[in-house]
Amino acid sequence: MSRAGRAAAALSAVGAAALVAGGLALGAVAAPGGAASPAAGGSSPAAVAVPVPASGAQLVCPGAPVPVTGADGGRRGSASAALSGTTGLVVASGAPVLSGQPLMQRTSDAGADPGASPGSSTATGAAAPRATSSKVLGDLQRVDADPATAVAGTGTALSSGPVDRRAPLLAGASTSLAPGGDLRGLSTPACAAPQEQAWLVGGASGAGRSTRLVLADVAQTPTTVDVTVLTAQGPQQPSALQGLSLGPGEQRSVLLEGVLDGSSDGGAAGGAPLAVQVRSSAGPVAAWLVESVLHGLVPGGTEVVGPAAAPAASLVVPGIASTGAQPAVLRLANPGTDPVVARFAVVGASGASVPSGTAPATAVPPQSVVDVALPGLPSGGVALSVEADGPVLAGVRTDTAPTDDGSQPGDLAWTAAVPPLAGPALVALPPPAKQGRQSGATTPDVRLVLSSRGASQVDVAVVGADGRTSPARRVELPASTTTAADVDDLARAAGAQGTPVALLLTPVAPAAGAGEDDGAGQVVAALTSRVTAAAGGGGDLVSAAPVGAGAAAPSSVPVTLTGP
Q1: What pLDDT digit, counting tens, does each position of 271-305 carry?
Q2: Which of the two ends of the chain, N or C, has the fewest CB atoms closer than 10 A to its terminal CB?
Q3: 156 with 173: CB under 8 angstroms?
């Protein structure tokens, strides 16, 4: 059996019952039964399964945050002070299928000159460092980006061809860690697939807050991007964000505070809230936000914000780990032209509840953004379910500042709503962060947080440092609950060798007779990461990374032939 076959088998392997430290109850695993093909009824013609050739996959991994000026000059928090790492993984057989390549970036609007016109720069990439060559690691192939790439703030494009005539299970993650300085913070974004339209829920404008929009084109053809920014006062479409041109393999960035109408600041204590829509005219692009906060001279944190789930009337935001003196904040954005009323509940270890001290419902005006404080959230990891009478976007920000007056350093983390797991998902764990090829490394402490609206099950397998996949173990999730576990504890319980590099998550099909309304199979997942701050050094450094749906491309599509 090939390595890919062994890894796939591990997704449904039978494991003994166990209880893993950290809160995940694991039971005996039985391979889920296959779904029966529906029979044709009445006079309707039967559908014919037409094979679809397997295709490859692409992801883009965000680069490390860079200073607002883009110049080192020895200033605090400069990019050269950050530790970083980027890795890509694919479940693969021995034939090479995985590759990684740094993106080119435009010099003027990538940070070197924030005042320059976003359309006036030229692309450069001749001196860009290259990612290391792909190597086989047990059941996986792996590629690691050159650390010098992150120093320049440059993202990495990952690509994989089909594996054993199937669409690949591809994943990647980046880590950026700045222990001090203006960019003090931890960011652990998952590498994301390019999209023709993407929503980013996060960021803010106002005093002491900077939000950078980064765009990347990994296609073989150029494209043009238009950007709409929703604010508390309504939508904005600055001319500088319309018709942005991107060449193949090119990355460019724009400081939003430099192009937005300043009247949107509104004087809010947390800055003016934002939600960003990115639309491409000629193929998918990758997009992310980089938010950084300063309270005067005191660093308030840095985070990379990835894509959120599309607007919907029912959403779940996973992986919320609230710490610090400041309450978490729920951000709701309404992209429609009619007002929307949203209700939310915290999904914790013992069930769902409405946070005390919050209103039972929140009105969100058309094409605008509203922030809602969430005091008193549990610190162990929860999710937030949102139900609205119209499509909305949702994300949650947490803050680790030990005081609420901004006098002590803290960090911030963003997590956005994601669709439930729809199939096997390979989840790359945040790689060690280091500076240079030979320096020491710092590995964040990572927790897996799983939530479900209805009684659900998910199989969890751990990929160790040797690339070998452990037998899958089944996690039971009662209705409307969240459970979390330290990934190192999961690895030890699974017998994985060394520091784990990935997880394989497989949702189990709902039991026969389970209805859609009971939420069976509606599992959402996230990774939360933490680096403990030195004594007296302020709040811990934190980050969150929601897990994508994980649905693989179908091997066939149903086709029904009908007469004229």
Answers
A1: 799 999 999 998 899 999 999 999 999 999 999 99
A2: C
A3: no
User: Considering only 123-132, 264-273, 484-493, which range has the smallest mean pLDDT?
Assistant: 123-132
Strand (E) positions, 83-152? 83-91, 98-102, 104-106, 123-124, 135-137, 140-144
Pairing of strands 250-255, 104-106: parallel
Measuring CA to CA, how many Å separate 229 from each of 232, 242, 470? 10, 11, 44
Phi, psi dihedral angles at 268 (to 5 degrees) = -65, 145
SS3 label, residue 547:
coil
- The answer to whether the beta carbons of residues 113 and 157 sit under 8 Å apart is no
Give the other-Cβ count within 10 Å of 436's Cβ: 10
Q: Is 493 helix (H, G, I), strand (E, B) or coil?
A: helix
Which helix or strand (DSSP H or E) is residue 260 part of? none
pLDDT of residue 355: 79
* Sign for the pseudo-dihedral over CA of 316, 322, 327, 328: negative
| Region of residue 126 (phi > 0: left; psi between -120 and 50: alpha; otherwise: beta) | alpha
Q: What is the SS3 assignment for 283?
A: coil
Residue 451 β-bridge partners: 482, 524
Distance between start and end Cα atoms, the chain: 48
Tell how far CA 447 is from the center of its chain: 14
Backbone angles phi, psi at 66, to 5 degrees: -125, 155
The number of C-alpha atoms within 13 Å of 196 and in the hemisphere containing its C-beta is: 3
The tokens describing 330, both together, are 């729920």
Give the whole-angstrom CA distance, residue 507 versus residue 509. 6
Three-class SS of residue 464?
coil
Question: ∠ at Cα 283 (277, 287), nearest 5°?
Answer: 40
**Torsion sign (Cα): 548, 551, 552, 554:** negative
**Amino acid 242: pLDDT:** 97
Query: What CA–CA distance (Å, rounded) separates 541 from 34?
Result: 43
Give the DSSP letter string of 9-40: HHHT-----EEETTTEEEE---PPPPPPPPPP
- Nearest-angstrom CA–CA distance, 182 and 14: 49
